[in-house]
């Protein structure tokens, strides 16, 4: 900690971010949005980004859409970071952290000193242990190209996958799958999680014969219970995707180095599947080796506390897929973006305090309790907070005279970052909170389920304490969207969840088809507040045409939209008069 | 017969006023009038109204228009100046006494506290002539920087968005009737069926083609027009319209549906915008806005198919207050413009982007200098050339003109405020023209308190509005059919407002009042009192500005076969021959930006300033009903309208009502961070289950603007009327009656 320049201006905090993916790049945006525009004393941060991939950050979530041919690759590019106090080194992998000197050594020999180090190295595709595939668990790699996701570290040491076998974690992976799909007829996707199903539907959309081979007992079994999974499986079958459950791929056969077939063990025996294209969607492995090599605690991911700080070094933080927070990593982008925002808040707040208190450490990292419960919608939905820097991203101008929700600590931990939404044409799945395997027997939970397998629909909602605490929606996209809104915002709902599943019957609309059953008080002409009763009264008063009715009541003289209805009423009144004496209105 | 236009909204429906027949003996109850000339029931009007054929309203009028003649005979019409006496009550006074007092106080307060301590608050219902004179009065007589107007509540975000994207803000840069040929019309936060019903005629074409898309958290009367295959209603979570737009833009680019040639030829900034929407894939937007991802895709494709590049017959994107009255209103307008640009719509015949202006002269009102940062002709007050030009027309030294003042919400917040560490003392005296702040301002309880904290409040109005009742001096003015002037409609068409009846004795035009006050304040600056003369001066002042009226005059407007010309309409030197024909469609060749291209600017969704929290777990949104206009100061006095919509109500979804134990018509208490109000429940499935809706036209216990937020958009200064967090419960007490509209204290 140097304090030699503290008198003139607090020296800027040097933040090094390892990883230039969706979370790392978002974090840099978030942090600098909380900083002054500079170069004055409000400008507190200098950021250096090390990204292993040569690409600019892109939207990895949409790779399955690229595979499906639904989006153009150019639309994946995320905002380019242009900021006077940020330096981005693309294609520069971090090689080593020297915690004693507080520097990061990059693979190209450059050295990057830090006051705070943020690891956003992401994760890489898990390669299952199958005979014919290289190594055991570990990142896959094609011809030494960068493959570790989240712009993690490329590892040219990893052996290549056989031709025809692909993971889907990077833009290059997606391009290769698309290229391979041109000549392939039969595709197999191993793994029926979110990514696996999106890829399967995407390849089916491209006209390939697709099979999904899944080791679990039902589809998406991390999110769906067997009943819901069965409805999803039926829909998938209707889309032309064959589903093999409880199926273990034991061996991959190649011919001349190219994939030829699979051996799959299922409860009913062993199958040989001829296949031209195999996509591995078997989950991800957090990219942790930088942290592990530096002696930081690493479990499945880089262990961090509830302020995203490593317990082994208060200057080192981890966010996104590489991190293992107390609540566990979900692998969802919403969680990573939420962590990005929280960490940016934390660092900005810490730096602000040191500006106010000269002589204090430049940044008191990790020592301040970040409030994980400050649950504004921005937090819960991980919204971007860049363009509002003019008023301060989280606190409105003090003159606004308003109490802001974001200034009020909420009691519960952040929620809503665990909404899982499948992006697969023809198969709609949304889950959140208490669902599938996460569903525990809790007497305070009320659960109602609507299962309609033949329509491809299965909805379940769990209510507790007057709010939605979980839901599963298969084949019911609008209900899923509504429940997501209620779940993430914790809006009050009836104790009986059934009300949330039944779409309210639309109120009867005015039609001219059956004037007899139109209530007298129905407004026929909105523009002039004219009811059916008033028109009937005018008719009895002698108005026998639309023009007469218009003259008497002004009906039809606004937008004219009710002319047909008035015409129908006049005709009905005329016809009724021929046959009977109309009842008094 | 007098050909004129409706006194209310920006559609400015054409109507003719006919002398009322002699009061007939009571007609037989069953008699049917032989024409649509039926005298409005309940009014003692001296004229009757008839719809008049015109491109915008095609002869149609809504109930407000049909009954507008009743305004001429309202029972509590102000006909004498009122001055607050030592007893604290308002008493009738002579014009001389009242004006002397105003002049004396203005002089004294300015001398004691500086010129900026005297402020002016204008209105979007004033004629162009009055708006112009008011701005000139503030800048040359009072020489205060502090003038702004209630258009800041309406159009500021649309104006800011359009100005920075196109270099020009004309609400609709095309004639309204152009909508008729469109294959798709996207309406965001606009409830035309209630706010300007006759305009629906122009949506018939798009509805017939299945192309009407309405984005509204309520199934409003307008949203209901999408039924039966006429289009799509997107019903987002309140405050998330921007996320909807970002997702639509995402789909347009992701699926390659944009107009690449147009983007290359006519825009800048597309790449940054494309990147900025990369994180807004539909499934993510769905989690924010509550609209199914596939619906978002469908709408994006529908719009693209309707666009010229998609081979369609044209598409329009229109925004209204529902998306603009937001702390991210300018960003939302910008996103709507970005979407329009990506689809290649603006500046093409048959397609475009527009903002649906609300107030009667909401367009002209923002062009002629009653805005804190503007001079006539839509000029910027901090532009030296603009100051030079306008000062020459006014015959003053450019250096004597004040600079930009406080925008409306900030101005209202500062009223009567003592000096603080960061700000000088707020204004001590305020002139209010054509605005009923007590009902229409956000967080209006605070605004009311601030008005009461002023040293002196002057209100010009023709009825004792809630705001007038707080004044120290009330000056009775002419209205609508009692005066001549011009209004500029939502499509930028300058229209003539004509006098049909004599004003009641004792009433004066604001032009006369301002001229008189200028004289009493010993200003050498000339103030005309003839509207045609004032217009001519306005036209000269606007010459060369973005909103150039210099080729227009009352005489020329009167001579047009279809009266009304679209600005810009610059003067043409006499030797050149034909006068400028006006500009029905702007941007056809170029955008009035430095490089002639439209600017695309990346924006992002943040969400409402006052978002849900455990003790306010629902959204409150506000809006209008067909029968009332703005604060209701006029329409609540029209018996037929008041009878049709007598008071405020809270729309609640039956499932939410069930959750909260609220029955239909039960009193409901709404509490926000600003306060609490009570109004009866109206159960309806048209509103989302996480949202309650209230119309804002009333004062008293059910006046919703008492609890709306006054947080403002950082760029436009527009307040976030349209969404805040609210706690909803069954009220324990009986409803308190609204304030009576008649004022006993006056007699």
Strand content of chain B: 15-25%
* CATH fold field value of the largest domain in chain B: Rossmann fold
Output the radius of gyration of chain A.
Answer: 30 Å
- Major sheet of chain B, described briefly? 7 strands, mixed
Gap from first CA to last CA of chain B: 36 Å
Can you identify the CATH class of the largest domain in chain B? Alpha Beta
Count of all domains of chain B: 3
Q: How many strands, which pairing sense, and closed or not: the largest β-sheet of chain A?
A: 6 strands, mixed
Using only C-alpha atoms, the radius of gyration of chain B works out to 25 Å
> Which quaternary structure do these chains form?
heterodimer
CATH architecture of the largest domain in chain B: 3-Layer(aba) Sandwich
Overall mean confidence score, pLDDT of chain A: 82
Average pLDDT figure of chain B: 93
Number of extended strands of chain A: 28
What's the arrangement of strands in the largest beta sheet of chain A?
A: 3-2-1-7-20-19
Number of helical segments of chain A? Answer: 13
Biggest interface, residues from each chain? A-B, 93 and 99 residues
CATH architecture classification name of the largest domain in chain A? 3-Layer(bba) Sandwich
